[in-house]
Amino acid sequence: MNKALRKAVIAGNWKMNKTPEEAKELIAQIAPLVKDADCSVVTCVPFVDLQAALEATKGTNIGVGAENCHWEKSGAYTGEISADMLAAMGVQYVIIGHSERRTYFGETDVTVNKRVRAALDAGLTVILCVGEYLEQREQGITAELVAMQTKIALQGVSKEELARIIIAYEPVWAIGTGKTATADQANEVCAVIREVIAGLYGRDAGDGITIQYGGSMNAKNAAELLDKPDVDGGLIGGASLKAPDFAAIVEAASR
Ligand code: 13P
Predict the structure, then answer these.
(1) In whole angstroms, how large is the CA radius of gyration of the chain?
(2) Which of 64, 144, 147, 222 could form a disulfide with 252 if both were Cys (CB 3.0 to 4.6 A apart)?
(3) Mode of pairing for the β-strands spanning 93-96 and 62-66
(4) Which residues contact 9 (CB under 8 A, 6 or more apart)?
(5) Distance 110 CA to ligand 1 centre (A)
């Protein structure tokens, strides 16, 4: 399948940044810059900013996502937010399995799978993150590891539901470090993930799924990364907090 037939998705991951007031301001800056984008544009924001982001993006082409969700619908899970709660607010996307959740908050492939299941059941679109640590890359197990993360995360997900899955390949060593994977490294692993999907769900599913790269993607390096045949977009951390930089990446994906 021609890459041009897959719609690119550029998503910002604001992580633990911005108050609701600041969120409104940043979205007001981003919206006019990306209004003619020929790709999907999403901002994933802290839970407390979701309402402000939903209001600020009304009438724009910017979708709103959360950065995590719990797998139960409700119950005694102090401090957690369910996928159903997000959907009830009008949130459309949710990031699941980000390496920061895996590294600092005990997220495992099994809990990632539970969260993916809950998000799909709630009607959300999932941005599923996979990626290796530097040690794992040096050990030569990147492909195996990312394949395993992908397979476990998608256990019990049907081919129809795959339409609401975006996969983000984020090498952990490239996140927030300024060390971007080369375009060839990014493409190589995105292609591995595509083959995993093709193996699980068929060639058409592999060809149809959107696979993003994330990790120090910025206004300068975006075009080269997005030019690669298996890189269909980006999950952007630091650069998503600056309207002109984020807009430049959206522009690069729109070409
Ligand atoms: P940076 O773009 O800041 O490296 O973060 C990438 C990321 O983790 C997006 O989810």
Answers:
(1) 17
(2) 222
(3) parallel
(4) 39, 40, 42, 166, 210, 212, 232, 233
(5) 23
Residue 24, judged by CB atoms within 10 A of its CB (0-12, 13-18, 19+), counts as middle
Q: pTM to 2 decimals?
A: 0.98
Q: Token pair 């949710």 is at which residue? A: 94
Among the options 100, 107, 132, 170, which is catalytic?
170
β-pair type (233-236, 40-44): unpaired
170 is catalytic: yes
CA–centroid distance, residue 108 to ligand 1 (Å):
19
Pocket of ligand 1 (CB under 6 A): 13, 98, 170, 175-176, 214-217, 235-239
For residue 69, the one-letter residue type is C
Residue 231 CA to residue 188 CA, distance in Å, equals: 9
